[in-house]
Design brief:
Layout lengths: L1 H12 L1 H22 L2 H30 L4 H19 L3 H34 L6 E6 L2 E6 L8 E4 L9 E5 L2 E4 L1 H4 L5 E3 L4 E2 L4 E2 L4 E4 L8 H14 L3 H31 L4 H15 L2 H4 L3 H13 L2 E3 L2 H7 L4 E5 H5 E12 L5 H12 L5 H9 L9 E6 L3 E6 L2 E6 L1 H4 L8 H12 L3 E8 L19 E2 L15 E13 L3 H10 L4 E5 L4 H11 L3 E3 L4 H15 L2 E5 L5 H6 L2 E5 L5 H6 L2 E3 L5 H37 L4 H19 L6
Parallel strand pairs: 11-19, 11-21, 13-17, 19-20, 21-22, 22-23
Antiparallel strand pairs: 1-2, 1-3, 3-9, 4-7, 4-9, 5-6, 5-8, 10-23, 12-18, 13-14, 14-15, 15-16, 16-18
Helix pairs in contact: 2-3, 2-5, 3-4, 3-5, 4-5, 4-9, 5-7, 5-11, 5-24, 8-9, 9-23, 9-24, 11-12, 11-23, 11-24, 12-23, 14-15, 18-23, 23-24
Length: 672
């Protein structure tokens, strides 16, 4: 059963290819029978080739004629083929039937190649999203069950474990955690969320398990959006192709009128016999039809879309591929786009009598019992150092953490939190910390009690029953005395770091001809300029609201015409929509950004922008080459037909050969 279903699916997917193959088989058998003198078999086999190879073209041509009252290339080819067959039967020159069958076969092959490009596009894009989470864990009748997002109902209770994506917008019923909301707000620091707070689809849950309540209908899932985008890429026609199609409709009418005149006038004006006039008129219909011109654009753009999808670049339709080859200025959002959106330790400044290693491993000892993102960044930075996990840990949300390490009390947190224990913070560290904060970095102060505590068993890193007590800041004195002797060990600066490939990408984009690289951000001017200097950005616009980013894009378009915008959050959506082409980060990108953008970078790899531009430039070059080839062949064949130097088979091979040639030329974009 499964085998038969799979066979049926493959047959349906590759119907155009099978039709071309079967048509070719019957054509060959008919030609062979005619060559051996079996006229009856030839007249049986060749019509079958006509029907199998020409059915789809005839159906599409008649549909266009009946519904839209327009002629198209498909119907012209069928008329020419049937005319050749009729003339061959009338004159008993049966090779003309084979000429018509060859015309239909080559036309079918051209259609199969274009269908191949379409299928490659669809398969490539869908395979990129095959692992996308599209379910949620809900509690119904006291039991947990996993259901599709589309099956969620208002009031459903949803369980989200640590490290999971929030499946849909909801309100927290139970639990406390930090959520990475960079995709929504554009800010790199995780936000603490507790009971009553709203959480958003696509944000990443931190360390705490959450129970959510669905308070509004869920938005469409990511995989459903991508399927819609695939359909959009297949059905939407880029401007250049729209022009060619409009041209084709008028051109087809001109060809039909010219063909009729060529059929009627020569017998009266130049004394042609009617058979010659019919033959030349049929040849004219073949060689003058714009098949190659029609195939000059879409196979190329579809191949580019498929190539991009294979490399993690999702083009929503062919027009964006065209535009990417013309971009003169690119605007980047900062947080989550030029930066990673992941916190990392970037600076360790010890007090004069301590080392960086000592400060880091001491901080890691106490932060190892914390589940705050800042603590996780410190522990990650100290993974290659030897340190002992703290005991008797107390966490003060939004302030800091205290623990015992090797019989000494360690404090890590904000400056005002540590000042509750240390009378005076070192002035040089205060100045350095202030400078870090102006650069958008978060500073963690580390201090220790110089007097050993009397607690037994302290330093036991293997205590599995250790619990983290959480107390409000006013209970600080519960575990220590302000008169105790505390010493500041140093400070640790933590920040959202620049993406490793960002600087190289910007450099390569400039070499590709991008005249202006711009950074747009809601961060302060100093932070923005610091990142811009590091990356080689030409202009910086800081402290922007979403509508401000929109206005900047409009000004850039007045100056550079074709402007791309790269972003990831809801705050970038207006600018993405306004830009000539909007590019969204696919992994961290918000739902709104993904829907608004024209291109999605599925792996959040900035260097793929360069790949997209190169694809766009290659597509432009190939389309120009194809149009030149198509027009050149049509012109040569028309001249040859009027001079009487070509017959129908040569016209068929020349015309349909040029169609296959430009189609194969377009498929070059399937290669990286």
């Amino acid at each position: 059963m499964l085998y038969s279903e799979r066979l049926h699916q493959l047959t349906k997917e590759h119907a155009d290819t099978l039709a071309a193959l079967v048509c070719g088989l019957f054509l060959f058998c008919g030609w062979f029978a005619l060559h051996l003198g079996f006229l009856g078999w030839a007249l049986l086999l060749l019509p079958i080739a006509y029907v199998i190879g020409g059915y789809e073209s005839a159906r599409e041509g008649l549909t266009t004629l009946i519904k839209e009252k327009e002629l198209d290339v498909d119907l012209l080819m069928i008329v020419a083929a049937l005319g050749a067959a009729g003339l061959g039967l009338w004159r008993r020159e049966y090779y003309l039937i084979i000429d018509g069958a060859i015309l239909i076969l080559i036309f079918a092959i051209s259609g199969a190649l274009e269908g191949y490009a379409m299928r490659r596009t669809e398969r490539s894009i869908q395979s990129l999203m095959s692992l996308t989470q599209d379910t949620a864990t809900v509690v119904r009748q006291g039991k947990e069950e996993v259901i599709a997002i589309a099956q969620l109902q208002l009031g459903d209770e949803i369980i989200v474990k640590p490290g999971e994506l929030i499946p849909t917008d909801a309100v927290i019923l139970e639990g406390y955690s930090t959520l990475n909301q960079a995709a929504i707000t554009g800010e790199s620091l995780p936000v603490e969320k507790t009971v009553g707070d709203e959480v958003f689809a696509g944000t990443l849950n931190g360390y705490g398990a959450l129970k959510l309540k669905l308070h509004q209908p869920p938005e469409s899932s990511l995989i459903q959006r991508v399927i819609r985008l695939v359909q959009q890429a297949q059905t939407e026609t880029p401007p250049s192709q729209q022009f060619i199609e409009r041209f084709e409709r008028g051109y087809a009418r001109v060809i039909v009128i010219a063909g009729v005149l060529l059929l009627i006038l020569p017998p009266f004006l130049w004394n042609w016999d009617w058979e010659t006039a019919i033959y030349r008129a049929l040849t004219f219909l073949v060689v003058a039809s714009p098949c190659a011109l029609m195939a000059a654009i879409m196979p190329t753009l579809l191949s580019g879309i498929a190539n991009g999808a294979k490399q993690g670049i999702l083009f929503k339709n062919g027009s964006q591929l065209e535009i990417m080859g013309k971009v003169r200025a690119i605007a980047f959002d900062k947080t989550g786009t030029l930066t990673t959106g992941v916190l990392e330790v970037c600076e360790i400044i010890p007090a004069s009598e301590y080392t960086q290693e000592y400060v880091l491993k001491t901080a890691a000892s106490v932060e190892s019992r914390s589940e705050h993102p800042l603590g996780e960044a410190i522990v990650k930075a100290a993974k290659n150092l030897d340190w002992v996990a703290a005991t008797e840990v107390q966490a003060f949300p939004g302030q800091g953490i205290i623990g015992i390490v090797n019989h000494q009390e360690i404090i890590a947190g904000k400056d005002n939190f540590v000042q509750n224990y240390v009378n005076d913070l070192p002035q040089n560290l205060i100045e350095i910390a202030t400078n870090f904060e102006l650069q958008g970095k978060t500073v963690v102060w580390i201090a220790e009690n110089e007097e050993e505590t009397g607690t037994e068993g302290q330093g036991d890193a293997g205590n599995k029953n250790e619990t983290l007590s959480v107390s409000p800041p006013h209970s600080i004195t519960a575990s220590s005395s302000l008169s105790a002797s505390y010493q500041v060990l140093g400070i640790i600066a933590i920040a959202d770091t620049v993406r490793s490939q960002a600087a190289a990408t910007i450099s390569h984009l400039k070499k590709l001809g991008v005249e202006q690289i711009v950074m747009l951000t809601g961060d302060n001017q100093q932070t923005a300029e610091s990142v811009a200097r590091e990356l080689g950005v030409d202009r910086v616009y800081a402290e922007l609201l979403p509508e401000d980013k929109l206005h900047v894009i409009r000004r850039l378009q007045q100056e550079y015409q074709t402007v791309a915008m790269v972003g990831d959050g809801i705050n970038d959506a207006p600018a993405l929509a306004q830009a000539s082409v909007g590019i969204a980060m696919g992994t961290v990108g918000s739902d709104v950004a993904l829907e608004t953008a024209d291109i999605v970078l599925m792996a959040d790899r900035l260097e793929k922008i360069e790949v997209a531009m190169r694809l766009g430039k290659r597509a432009q070059a190939i389309v120009k080459q194809n149009i030149t080839i198509a027009l050149g062949f049509i012109l040569l064949l028309l001249i040859g037909n009027f001079l009487g130097d070509i017959n129908l088979p040569i016209g068929v091979v020349g015309h349909e050969g040029s169609t296959v040639l430009v189609t194969l030329s377009g498929l070059r974009l399937l290669k990286n």
